[in-house]
């Protein structure tokens, strides 16, 4: 079974699906956290200058009329490469020259998505100011806000929310930003989601909620946050399991007591 088929497998539990899906996205987009994109086959000088943040070279090439929206073999523009590597000034130069902000690469990821992966909040702010759509999902339905939640980039999450990112928009299987934060144990991000009015009981494809995800992960702090804010402790997923049933470690008395009726 290929990675894509695995991610789309309807029998894969959502708690597994969310992680598989997110890792697949990073690999497909070539922008895993802390990494640099593979530009070994790029021959376009503007692409090479953008990914390295060589601003003088970028200015010279733009003045020569080099196409700022040309794509490499992965469908990535110079703006995408500057965004994924966090070169804020380079991003600003390309946008000022007229670079298109919402072009998607071969994996469906935009420059905004690329900047989100590594949490470059200043780059996000510039892209959003120039019309980047915060709700464009990649080919697997994952939005920048879902990815920021997966990575735990609190500042990036805040910037996206303040610029209209859909807080309850899930991927193709219903995994929402709050669900992702709960599953990955990112409490500050989960608190931001709650503060901005995320639906605490939004169900995924398998009927599970963010509280199921937090309980399955054994995270008492996030589970307590959700319960105190009104999450339903008795809600059942498609298998008839409550959040309490999702707790793997029954010796975690704090979590068991919190979720018990």
Low-confidence stretches: 1-11
CATH fold category name of the largest domain: Serine Threonine Protein Phosphatase 5, Tetratricopeptide repeat
Distance between the termini: 41 Å
Number-wise, the strands total: 0
Helix content percent band: 40-55%
CATH domain class of the largest domain:
Mainly Alpha
CATH architecture of the largest domain: Alpha Horseshoe
Share of β-strand residues: under 5%
The total tally of domains equals 2
Structural class: mainly alpha
Order of helices and strands: HHHHHHHHHHHHHHHH
The total count of helices amounts to 16
Question: How does the overall form come out from the CA principal axes?
Answer: elongated
Identify the CATH homologous superfamily of the largest domain.
Ankyrin repeat-containing domain
Strand count, sense and barrel status of the largest sheet are: none
- Any idea what the radius of gyration is? 20 Å
């Amino acid at each position: 079974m290929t990675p894509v088929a695995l991610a789309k497998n309807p029998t894969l539990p959502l708690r597994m699906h969310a992680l598989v899906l997110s890792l697949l996205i990073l690999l497909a987009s070539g922008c895993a956290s802390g990494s640099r994109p593979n530009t070994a086959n790029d021959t376009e000088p503007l692409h090479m200058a953008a990914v390295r943040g060589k601003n003088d070279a970028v200015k010279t090439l733009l003045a020569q009329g080099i196409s700022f929206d040309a794509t490499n073999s992965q469908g990535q523009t110079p703006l995408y490469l500057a965004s994924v590597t966090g070169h804020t000034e380079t991003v600003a130069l390309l946008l000022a020259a007229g670079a298109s902000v919402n072009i998607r690469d071969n994996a469906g990821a935009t420059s905004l998505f690329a900047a989100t992966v590594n949490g470059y909040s200043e780059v996000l702010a510039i892209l959003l100011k120039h019309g980047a759509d915060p709700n464009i999902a990649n080919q697997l339905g994952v939005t920048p806000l879902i990815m920021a939640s997966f990575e735990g980039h609190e500042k990036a999450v805040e910037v996206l929310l303040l610029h209209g990112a859909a807080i309850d928009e899930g991927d193709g299987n219903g995994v929402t930003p709050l669900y992702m934060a709960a599953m990955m144990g990112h409490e500050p991000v989960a608190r931001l989601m709650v503060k901005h009015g995320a639906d605490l009981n939004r169900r995924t494809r398998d009927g599970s909620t963010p509280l199921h995800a937090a309980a399955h992960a054994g995270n008492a702090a996030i589970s307590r946050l959700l319960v105190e804010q009104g999450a339903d402790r008795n809600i059942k997923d498609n298998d008839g399991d409550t959040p309490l049933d999702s707790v793997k470690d029954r010796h975690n008395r704090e979590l068991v007591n919190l979720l018990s009726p």
